[in-house]
Amino acid sequence: MTLTNLKLRRTTLQLTTGALIALGLILLSPVLGDFSRDLITQPIDETKLITIGRSVRVEANATNDRGPVPDDFPLPHMLLQLKRSPTMESEFVQYIDQLTDKKSPNFRKWLTAKEIGEKYGPSEQDLNTITHWLESHGFSIYGVHPNRLVIDISGTAATLREAFRTQVDYLYVDGKSHFANMTNLKIPEALAPVVVGLVQIHDFAPQTYLKPKAPNYFISLTLMPLVAADFETIYNVSPLFQQGIRGEGQTITLVEDSDSFSNDIATYRSEFLSKFTGTVTTTHPAGSNACTDPGANGADGEADLDGEIASAMAPNASIVLAVCADTTTFGGLLALENLTASDSPPSIVSQSFGVCEAFSVEPSNVAFRSAFQTAAAEGTSIFVSAGDSGSSDCAGDFGDGDLYTLTGIGITGWGESVYNVSVGGTDFEDFYNAEKPANGGLPVTTYWSTTNGPTDGSAKSYVPEIPWNDSCAGFLIYNLKGFMTPGGRSGCCNSSIATTGNAFLSTAAGGGGPSACATGGTNIDQTRDLEVADKCVGYAKPSWQSGVFGNPADGVRDVPDVSMFAGNGFWGHYMVACFSDANGGGKSCAGAPSTWAGFGGTSVASPMLAAVQALVNEYHGISRIGNPTPTYYAIAKAEFGTTGNSACYSINLPANGGLRSNCAFHDITQGDNNVDCRENGTTNRVNCYLPDAGSSVQGAVSTQPLTTGTVLKGGSGYTSAPTCTLGAPSNLNEYLPPPGQSPNPIWAGGTQATCTAAVLNGTVNRITITSGGQGYTGGTTCTLTGGGGSGATCVASATVATPAPTYQPAYGATPGWDFATGLGSVNAYNLAIDSAW
């Protein structure tokens, strides 16, 4: 046994009785014979360093800098993210794909985290080398996750500076003090094959994807808030309840950053679910150290909301709030890591937090993907909110994000992996239809009773849905108000209707779009546009998403997958919630539910769909089903066919009879998730259509042509120019208005861009965009083939200084899959009885 093996075993013995057990992370016993997996093959040379790109928060800049923290500034429980070799990663991915394939001999043969580590993780020799290097710089090692991809360490600002060559400074941002590392991390070159980087070295909180009830109701003077009975009727849960399928024996784990407030969840259940037997408990996985109890804090509204909506849809299930206090790492991730490290990982998890893909540091994006991948191999179903800022999720990370976005198109970076269900948001179309005879003209009373039932429900049936969108840039809003366009001086967003009291200025909308900056990228000034192009790369499109009608051949992971209700009252509907923390804007739950607090956002949608999945599992008599997304898409592919299925269009489901359809998915084909934008400077204008110049003039988020090709690697051996091929645009599908409305179409669909390559001295030295096409976001894939050489790579993008020259709304709801709502919402009963499970 080598000395480094002995070193790791010594650390294991020291920590077994203390912090290690409390943390819930298991240091590994020696695994002999895995030396062929060693990736660290060179001695560590501290003079030969590589830089970990995009490992700095954008707030860490000179404007916000207030000087360095003291050398002894504690940095507890940082997570060092590791990676597998490409070969082992490929093998692991193939195994996970087999877990949901009924034809595979490995169907539902789940692995434990320890088995994952032993079979697919980095070698013990590499772990020994890394931990020895960390200890040599003064870090304390608290544990190695049994999947061998996470090492929990603690240190100080001085040890971080010495080992990773970055300084931690105090920052002052939006009136609050923070800390963060100021430069990209650096590590010895020898460690690069295994080390991704430190997941987080700052104290900025992520977005909570919930929206309080809108203060004004501009579409309808009538309010119809939703209680548990309404959701059960609308999404056809009631027939399952009648068969005794109510979540019995199922557990839904909600990853939180705060305890729930007081007895709020119990009060909600007492009011609406008193006849059911489910439980709601709070746990702090591993108990102490990296998972201490944060108590009730500013995120307690999220915890209340998640626990209540999960209870509403699966009232006999065991609801578990998994809560860890933040360290230098988001407490929700600590909880998730500890849960997946246990011998009994959860069967269903919902997470309602996120940070936009381009805004999040790259190691953080990788950490969530890796945690969700481990969960999928263990049989855990992961549901994650898709975001609350429409097609520009990065808007939510800036102070201006409530009224308009200055950033380009972007999606959440924590819920876009191929191992989680990305859950978008819908609202109801009843009030719009009542005003538009050509779209049905049915009165609102078609869907709602004028009196409440015994548990306050009033929904009669399924209600036609649209993408959740409160913005003046949404077609249904500006059309209803009599405008032909959203942006520009004559558009709805610049009218007195919108700007008086900022009535229609909003980025509140269900998230959706293509993955564009999951990995890679440089560290340019991102404070205005964020980085959606340059060297950024999106996650590759999973095989199960390809070939589904409506999903574009853009080569990348697209979100959301499924959408559920997320309205916050703008169109007259929101979720009633018991949230009584007055310090957080809550209201007393002592009176009638109509006086309680109300919420919307994809934080409603994600735990709701997670609870529906619990009913599906119970119906089939199984405790865990793994990643349900491939099965969702298989069901949708059969339902949509090759041209769409108008019988399953949400708007076509017959009044009072929609629940009796054969559709598992309600295909939402009207509306969009487009939001308003403003000019963000002469050098940062990408993805905003501004027909009239001016920094105070509202535009609309838009896709656009490509303008720039960039060679990443020149390769070698080229005797002629290789063929240059660009990926298809994401915004591909025609976007039609409701019947009788104009313009028709609103958007005719994207067109393919083209490129050529040039060679100099055997290497590719230039990429030229010969046709920019239409419908692109920040960038797209670029491939080079032929020419006699190899190794050249490239990307193509829109120039951040170039605004969208024409209006290409991002994104419209269309037949089949679309960025606005994914596959649509679900009919719970039809989803449960489908034979695909």
Walk me through the structure:
- With 837 residues, the protein is of the alpha+beta class.
- It is 21% helix and 20% strand.
- The strands form 12 sheets. Strands 12, 13, 14, 15, 17, 18, 19 and 24 form an 8-stranded mixed β-sheet that branches.
- Helix 10 (300-313) links the parallel strand 13 (279-283) and strand 14 (318-323).
- Helix 1 (3-15) crosses helix 5 and helix 10 packs parallel to helix 16 (602-619).
- 60% of the residues are buried.
- Mean pLDDT is 91; it is low at 1-33 and 524-529.
SSE blueprint:
Layout: H1 3-15, H2 19-23, E1 49-51, E2 65-68, E3 74-82, H3 86-99, H4 113-120, H5 124-136, E4 140-144, E5 150-156, H6 157-164, E6 168-173, E7 176-181, E8 186-188, E9 195-198, E10 207-208, E11 211-212, H7 228-234, H8 238-242, E12 251-256, H9 264-272, E13 279-283, H10 300-313, E14 318-323, H11 331-341, E15 348-351, E16 353-354, H12 362-378, E17 381-385, E18 421-428, H13 430-435, E19 465-467, H14 475-480, H15 496-499, E20 513-514, E21 519-520, E22 536-537, E23 558-559, E24 562-565, E25 575-577, E26 597-600, H16 602-619, H17 629-640, E27 665-666, E28 676-678, E29 688-689, E30 698-701, E31 708-716, E32 723-726, E33 754-760, E34 763-771, E35 779-785, E36 790-797, E37 825-826, H18 828-833
Parallel strand pairs: 12-14, 12-15, 13-14, 15-17, 17-18, 18-24
Antiparallel strand pairs: 1-8, 2-6, 3-5, 3-9, 4-5, 6-7, 10-16, 11-26, 18-19, 20-23, 21-22, 25-26, 27-37, 28-30, 29-30, 31-36, 32-35, 33-34, 35-36
Helix pairs in contact: 1-5, 7-10, 9-10, 10-16, 11-12
